Amino acid sequence: MLDCDDLAAVRHAGLEALTVARLDTDDIGENDVAMAIAQRLAGDHVRAEPPVHGRADLIAETNGLLVYAPDGIGKLNRATEAITFAAVAPMTPVRAGDVVGTVKIIPYAVPRAELVSAGQVADGCKVRIAAFGPLSVNLVQTSLGSVSLKLLAKTETVIRQRVERLGGHLNHVWICDHDEAALTNLLADSSEADLVLIMAASATADREDVVPAAIRQAGGRVERVGMPVDPGNLLCLGWLRRRAVIGLPGCARSPLRNGV
């Protein structure tokens, strides 16, 4: 909005004419619209930043997973072409301070009726963070003659860092032979944890392989062998005493992004 100081600056600069946009009586300025929509979208652990040039960012206030209904965001973007919203993909891990979404107003102003209509849609598609909670993890690595101590140490470091990024901690770390009986005994006797990770010396090929067989022998059940992701498809998921047991694929030894 131009005020007297702006006009004085224009005259001082020697300008004779300005091209401006004049708002209708029921128009709402772009910054006010951006903030109104952003505040309605902001759910748990998400805040709306003050708008600039018709743009208001949504900021994560904690570490966790980004959660929202994509269909709801699509409906908001169809409500009026004047109001747009883009967000990071749902279920993406985010950290406190990350920009997780942006409201951008296309014109300089929006009719009040369009803002009211879009605001009602925004009320139904909150963007929130499912915060990471405390997580204790046990790690078991199996070893064959070809597996070096250096590789085992590197794997522990990578997995420890990955767990800590999710707000958890490694409770215990064990190494045993890549043998069904040895792994069964360790699983049966291991201390309580929220999650057990198994990095086998040899990838799991089927339900009769060492990791799924040991889960069953320890009194657990195997949920699935193999996952539709790449890399990371040789993953085994099971349950033992109400806690998840995951037989990790070989790619979990790498710090690079993968199916784990």
Automatic annotation (TrEMBL):
MoaB/Mog domain location is 156-253
**Pfam families, alphabetically?**
MoCF_biosynth (PF00994)
Query: What is the name listed in the Swiss-Prot or TrEMBL entry for this protein?
Result: Molybdopterin biosynthesis protein
